[in-house]
Amino acid sequence: MFPAIPEDLSLQLLLNQHWRNAALDFVLPLFSLRAPLFVILAGLLVWRSALRGKTQVAYFLLLALAMGATDLGTNVAKHAVGRVRPQHAVAGTYRQESGQWVRLPADHVPDRERGTSFPSAHAANSMALAVLAMCLWPKLRRGLWALPLVVGWSRVYLGKHYPLDVAAGWLLGALVGWLFWLGWKRLAPRLKMPTLPDDIYRPVLR
């Protein structure tokens, strides 16, 4: 069993049970959905390919590989640690079932010995994506850093993770994203490709 940390539990209670309102109930679950993210990435790939050429596929493939490696790493860690999710362990936790908000009863007794809470894959994947994307497209550094923060918040709000799970996911994702960036800087010259996508010039297709 994962040892209980008072500060972690206190912050989980604050973010999941106390800091709630109707607007957050609607907005935050959207940041835990992966489908919209992949739709956005696909749209950006089409747009960037039209703007800079088909070689842009390589940069988006790099993003996908980084997220895949991060997801694999978190799954290995989850099964090794076996921490039970708060939605199954903490009395009073809010969670969603079939799109509706429900709450664990105040007298809930944990009935699981193992789970897949630590670390958060959503937090890790979003951080790996953000770190690598900000390295490839430096102009994104002004705002993209907020993506993993909101994704992590959404996971606690939904009762899926403790804050410590999210923090561990962020660290893992940042490490993987940075390692992929370092690897790409060495590989790109060998492939005779610019390290940064914006170093490729092609007029906008009319």
TrEMBL record:
GO terms for cellular component: plasma membrane. Residues 60-181 form the Phosphatidic acid phosphatase type 2/haloperoxidase domain. The chain crosses the membrane at residues 26-47, 59-77, 166-184. It holds the Pfam family PAP2. GO terms for molecular function: hydrolase activity. Keywords: Cell membrane, Hydrolase, Membrane, Transmembrane, Transmembrane helix. Gene3D superfamilies: Phosphatidic acid phosphatase type 2/haloperoxidase (1.20.144.10). It comes from the Bacteria. It is a multi-pass membrane protein. It is found in: Cell membrane. This is Undecaprenyl-diphosphatase. It comes from Humidesulfovibrio mexicanus.
